[in-house]
Design a protein that fits this description.
This protein is an alpha/beta fold. The protein contains 18 helices and twelve strands.
Length: about 475
Amino acid sequence: MTFTELREKHPRFKFTEIFPEFKKTETGTVLHLEYFFSIDGIDGLFRPTWEIPCKTELSQKPGAKRLFSPLEDDPAFWRLIVSLGMAELVSYWKIACPPKVKLSDILVDKEQEDWWKRLYFGGLGEFFYRNGIETDFDSFMQFEYDDAPYYENLPDKPAQRTDLSGLLIPVGGGKDSIVTLNLLKGQLDNAYAYQINHRDSSEQAALLAGIPKERILEVKRTLDPNMLRLNKEGFLNGHTPFSAIVAFSAALTAYVNGLKTVILSNESSASESTVSEAEVNHQYSKSYQFERDFAAYERDYLRCGVQYFSLLRPLTEFQIARYFASLPTAYHEIFRSCNAGAKQDKWCGHCAKCLFVSVILSPFLPLAEITRLLGADLFNMADMEPVLQELCGALPNKPFECVGSRKEVNISLCLAIARTEQAGEKLPLLLENYKASPLYAEYAETASAFGQEWDPQHNLPDALAGLVRRECVENYR
């Protein structure tokens, strides 16, 4: 069915309910969240769940059948869990893209409505583009309300927690979060690692950096199987702004654990559009625009006191890869960035992300070492040639993956060629082909001067900005 047909058949999406519950487990207290969504014309509810480990004391109220936490009377806690539900909402809305979204009275003004619509519209850019959907900001979604609010006037009430301190560092297992952990190695005494669902590479990176297992907060997120079934039956599917879910869930996790600052590992390259002639960015919710918007949302609506910024925002992927290559080889052995192989926590060895990682590391590590780490010699795979052309801009669109800018791909290829030839080695197939292209002629003469960039659009405190500039820019002059 088409976008228009689905919207006619399924005119309304409903954010029906939230069920939060604190539970005692063998390992401590867990905040269990269950969200209830529905779509007109589709049987059953969608019920995604979260389990968040938290440091909070529970008590049994007289006559009550469940345990209570002081957080349940904290307005900021409710604002956070409702906002996480709003971030989850779009993954289920996209099934049929209903024109109306019915909420309880959880948004307080037109500016807040527009904030969520900007996130959805920008974060769904790839989804609209790849599904051939033509729509606009005003008409793709309209909010409706009923008279059953989850809370009343909570945005005007302050958070109860005033004791926030310490760091929460999302660790995905890739090179970027490993770089963040190492840049902050002198500040990890009161730092916690954060991951959504278990990955060996994420846990190993945190442990290797010196964060003990008891300070690794592993959050469990489940998708509703009904959504997965409908995707197989031909309803709409595609990319949604997952990093926004990371942002809201990390802020909630930080708050319930008394932590002050969430430090991400998104770089300046994430702000570049994936499609060359349109603002369609696979990494929209990793962009500086979203980071800036999230900070404003916390200030104006969440008001929980949790700070959120990316330590690597002033840097390019090139600079991050250069620093990563200089780290102890134990980190090289464990890092994983491949989405295709994520469920097995491995490199698939044949996707755009694997090729990009090979490219961005090639100025700094021997090609044979990259081949060994990824388990595949991607530079000698002829069928990866079109993917390389997408990465470097010879074709108009980049792959819909979290990859660096076109410029730094070209710079990396030029430097890899120079490094390989200086070592007296034969160029692999893709580098040999690239050397014969106009792009090599365009970038080769200036490639060696690259790497001193510093993007002023960031939210780093001065002390951290100085640290990052010194370690990742000035040390390479």
